[in-house]
Each structure stands twice: as structure tokens, then as C-alpha cells.
Design brief:
- It is a single chain.
- This protein has 237 residues and is an alpha/beta fold.
- It has one domain: HUPs (Rossmann fold), CATH 3.40.50.620.
- It is 33% helix and 14% strand.
- It has nine helices and six strands, in the order H-E-H-E-H-E-H-E-H-H-E-H-E-H-H.
- A six-stranded parallel β-sheet has the order 3-2-1-4-5-6, with helices on both faces.
- Helix 3 runs antiparallel to helix 9.
- The longest helix is centred in the first third of the chain and has 13 residues.
- It is globular and about 55 Å long.
- It binds adenosine-5'-triphosphate.
- Adenosine-5'-triphosphate binds next to strand 1, helix 2, strand 4, helix 5 and helix 8.
């Protein structure tokens, strides 16, 4: 919490500064990862490449404040994430929210990262579904001061309509929408960029449903995670 507060109102640099190349942004993908699936991993890899990110950090939430609590414990979700990214260049697990007491507020995480990363651009990577609910997040307006927001267009299931953006959110992003991804390197926070991704209609909800019904989740979840799930008998109803 302290990090976000201290950073508030601080001057954010515009890039490029004379003679210095703009630093490559860091991508942040938060979630419950209950369990991590290939939709998360492909999105992270695609965004890293499309936006030339220095790395993508996957940050599991301990106590997600905006949704039902995860089925698997934090240590299991972390262990599965670590197995899933092992040996994958540019993806890294950051376990900071698991050691913080209380709800896992993104604004606190970004505040800490901002302190650590100085003026480097930070891109908060969000599925369109998560973005549509942003106004319910703790101190959501402060997020724009700490990071850019990259909204991944996620496929909709048949018959499902795109959730309308709440008026407050539409208003907040009005002057922030970028017309090129290059804007993400022109400053360290405050831009909103919508990135289309090759659609992978996979969710942890569906993975849990398959596992709960005793069906296969192969090729939706990394084999190393499936072995872990079987070994620890997770997601069995
Ligand atoms: P659940 O089904 O339990 O709600 P989930 O599959 O949405 O879980 P989360 O851990 O809640 O997974 O998601 C973390 C982030 O990853 C969110 O911003 C979410 O929108 C995004 N995300 C999840 N699945 C995909 C996917 N298939 N493609 C793109 N983004 C995704």
C-alpha cells in the first residue's frame, strides 16, 4: 500500500529522453491461476512478442478481493505456475502477493513494482472480462498512475455478449486510448491499449469442471501441472 501512496503525484517521465533508448516495458499478468492453463501462457507469450516486453511476470493472488475464493490453496497454485513456466524464456513467476497479508490488491502490487522498477514502463495485462470489472477494484483510478493497461480481447462463448464498459470506466479511459502500441514505450504509465490475440477459448472454470467430472484436461493445461494436480488430488469434487 505504501508504495502506491508514495508514488502518487510523482512525475512520470516521457520517453525517449535525449540519447537514451526507451526501456522495454515489463508485463504483469495477475490472476488466481486456479489452475494456470494454456490460455494464460499463450496470452503471455503472444503479448511479450507483440509488444516487445522485456518479460512477463505472472503474479498469483493470495486472496482475490473481487471474485470467489480459489479452489486450490495458494501454495498449490504457485507450484503449478512454477512448473508451467519452467524453461519458458521471458515468463517469470512473482510470488509477492502470497507473502502479503490481507486481500491481494493490484494497486499495492503495482506500487511496490513501481518503487523497484523506477521509470521503466509497466504494462498491466488484463483480459477484456477482467477490464470490464475494473471500477470494482480497490483504488482503481490509481492504477493508471502506476502502469499502462493492456486489454486482451478474449473470445466470447457462443451466445455471450461483450460486457458493456461501465460509464465511469469509459470516461476514465477516454483520453488514454492509444492508437499505436508504440505509446507503451513513450511513458511509464497511463496509456490504455487494446491488443487482439489469437483466440483460445479456455478458462480455469472449464478446466476445473473437466477435472471434477473425471475427464481429461490434457492440452488445456501443461502436462507438468496435470501431474501435480493428479498427485495432490486437486479439483476433485
Ligand atoms: P476462472 O475461469 O476461474 O475465472 P480464468 O481462466 O479467467 O479463471 P484467471 O486466473 O482469473 O483465469 O485469469 C487471469 C487473467 O488472465 C485475467 O486477466 C483473464 O482475463 C486472463 N485470461 C484467462 N484466460 C485467458 C484466455 N484464454 N485468453 C486470454 N486471457 C485470459
Amino acid at each position: 500500500m505504501g508504495g502506491a501512496r508514495q508514488w502518487r503525484g510523482a512525475r512520470l517521465t516521457n520517453f525517449p529522453r535525449r540519447g537514451r533508448p526507451a526501456p522495454r516495458p515489463i508485463g504483469i499478468l495477475g490472476g488466481t491461476f486456479d489452475p494456470v492453463h494454456v490460455g494464460h501462457l499463450r496470452a503471455a507469450i503472444e503479448l511479450k512478442s507483440a509488444l516487445d516486453l522485456a518479460e512477463v511476470r505472472l503474479i498469483p493472488a493470495r486472496l482475490p478481493p473481487h471474485r470467489p475464493q480459489p479452489r486450490a490453496g495458494a501454495e498449490h497454485r504457485l507450484a503449478m505456475l512454477q512448473r508451467a513456466v519452467r524453461g519458458v524464456a521471458g515468463l517469470r513467476v512473482d510470488a509477492r502477493e502470497l507473502s502479503r497479508a490481507g486481500p491481494s490488491y493490484t494497486v499495492d502490487t503495482l506500487g511496490e513494482l513501481r518503487q523497484e522498477l523506477g521509470q521503466r514502463p509497466i504494462c498491466l495485462l488484463l483480459g477484456a472480462d477482467a477490464f470490464a470489472g475494473l471500477t470494482g477494484w480497490h483504488r482503481w483510478q490509481a492504477l493508471f498512475e502506476l502502469a499502462h493497461l493492456v486489454v486482451m480481447q478474449r473470445p466470447l462463448s457462443a451466445g455471450q455478449a461483450a460486457p458493456p464498459l461501465p460509464a465511469k470506466l469509459a470516461q476514465a479511459i477516454g483520453g488514454r486510448l492509444a492508437d499505436s502500441a508504440r505509446a507503451l514505450r513513450g511513458s511509464c504509465a497511463g496509456v490504455v491499449w487494446r491488443q487482439a490475440l489469437p483466440p483460445l477459448d479456455i478458462s480455469a472454470t472449464r478446466v476445473r469442471a473437466l477435472l471434477g467430472a473425471g475427464e481429461s484436461a490434457r492440452f488445456l493445461v501443461a502436462d507438468s501441472c496435470l501431474r501435480y494436480i493428479r498427485h495432490h488430488r486437486l479439483y476433485i469434487d
